[in-house]
Amino acid sequence: MADKADLANTADSHKYISRGIAHVPLGKTPDPVTVSFVLMKQFTMLAFTSAIEPLRVANQLAGRVLFRWHVYSEDGQPITCSNGLPVLPEGPLPAMADAGYVLVCGGVEPEAACTPALTDWIRAQWRHGRTVGGLCTGAYALARAGILDGRRFTLHWENLRSFAELFPTLTPDWQVYCIDDRIVTCAGGVAAADLVLKLIDDHLGPDLSQAVMNMCLMTRRRDAEDEQVTSLTSRLGNRNRHLLKAVSYLEAHLEETFSVEDCAQFVGVSWRQIERLFRANLGVTPIQYLAGLRLQHGRALLAETDMSVLDVAIACGYASSAHFSKSFRARFGVSPHRFSHFRQTSKKAAKT
User: Fold this and answer.
1) Phi/psi at 300 (5° precision)
2) Which of 121, 268, 275, 290 is 20 to 30 Å from 193 by CA-CA measure?
3) Rounded to an integer, what distance in angstroms lies between the CA atom of residue 136 and that of residue 191?
4) Angstrom distances, CA of residue 310 to CA of 26, 115, 256, 314, 317
5) pLDDT at residue number 231
6) Which residue ranges make up each domain of the chain?
7) Rounded distance, CA 56 to CA 95, Å?
8) How much is the pLDDT for 7?
9) Whole-angstrom distance, CA of residue 29 vs CA of residue 204
């Protein structure tokens, strides 16, 4: 009769090893690594699946359990991701996760999903020696848990500026992923696969990591230092160094009173020349381009924070909420008050 250990191994095999053709022979391997996924409300499925699938593929290629995983939500109830699909977790947050990695999967409106119960639990896992991480906007929960001080970390580029408003003493990196001792974070999306491939490499070597990458049809694994988005040159479709410097200056000074002279001095040409470059290459004036950046920033703040319209206007460099509101409506077809109201109504509905 099989003993309990044999039965457990059989159950593990059925749960964690899928059948496949490709195989990677491995010698003696360490004990399986456990990854506990915590799904925040409206988490992004792309980040979650990009993280969990390489683990499954690694087990499949090796024909043995190299990784185990668990999936939790705060209360154990089905949780809806940002694309509207419900996901059934294994259960609620356990008192203590299994030794290994605890990865918090964030998504849209991350600040609203950071409940005290969740952040207290994350802090407890960290204090008991778990490696804690955030996928996409999971860094919000880590920040609320108070474990990012002095750490290198990242999150999705779309949320970086609104994150800075909420946590002014923390400075995220614009990288694909960061590993800082027992803190691991990634920008979300397919960057979660880059992070997990790095973990597979660290635990089991480059051969398996490369094989998993091939199975996932990834042509390369990005390094931690790689930037999240394409270069400014690619985004603008232009290599003019003066234009690139001017745009970089505008993006770095969204919240400040704009100075034509300072921008021209930074670029090293006259303001008239900068004006001509913007009109010829981007079809807008520098002031119009800056206004677009500020309004997009304001939209992000209204979507992800509880800041008032007046505070958002000031944070975006506007002298008055009336000017901001008029510009916001012209740009997005809705007033900032109405946009913020929709978000608050949506948040309340998600809690019921």
Assistant:
1) -65, -40
2) 121
3) 9
4) 60, 26, 16, 6, 11
5) 59
6) 32-215, 232-351
7) 26
8) 45
9) 7
- Residue 112: name the closest of 352, 348, 315, 300 by CA: 348
User: How do 33-39 and 100-105 pair as beta strands?
Assistant: parallel
Q: For residue 205, what is the DSSP state? A: -
Checking if the pLDDT of 349 tops 60, the result is no
What is residue 1's predicted lDDT score, i.e. its pLDDT? 44
C-alpha span between 40 and 110 (Å, rounded): 8
**Superfamily classification of domain 32-215:** Class I glutamine amidotransferase (GATase) domain (3.40.50.880)
Cα–Cα distance for residue pair 142/119, rounded to 1 Å:
7
Q: Are 212 and 54 in contact (CB under 8 A)?
A: yes
Does residue 139 surpass a pLDDT of 60? yes
User: Quick one: CATH architecture of 232-351?
Assistant: Orthogonal Bundle (1.10)
pLDDT tens digits, 165-183: 899 999 999 899 999 999 9
Sign of the dihedral defined by the CA atoms of residues 211, 215, 217, 222, in that order: negative
271 close to 277: Cβ distance less than 8 angstroms: no
Residue type (1 letter), 5 = A
Q: Could you report the per-residue pLDDT of 90-130, keeping only the tens digit for each? A: 999 999 999 999 999 999 889 889 999 999 999 999 999 99
For the purposes of burial, counting CB atoms within 10 Å of the CB of 43, is it exposed (0-12), middle (13-18) or buried (19 or more)? buried
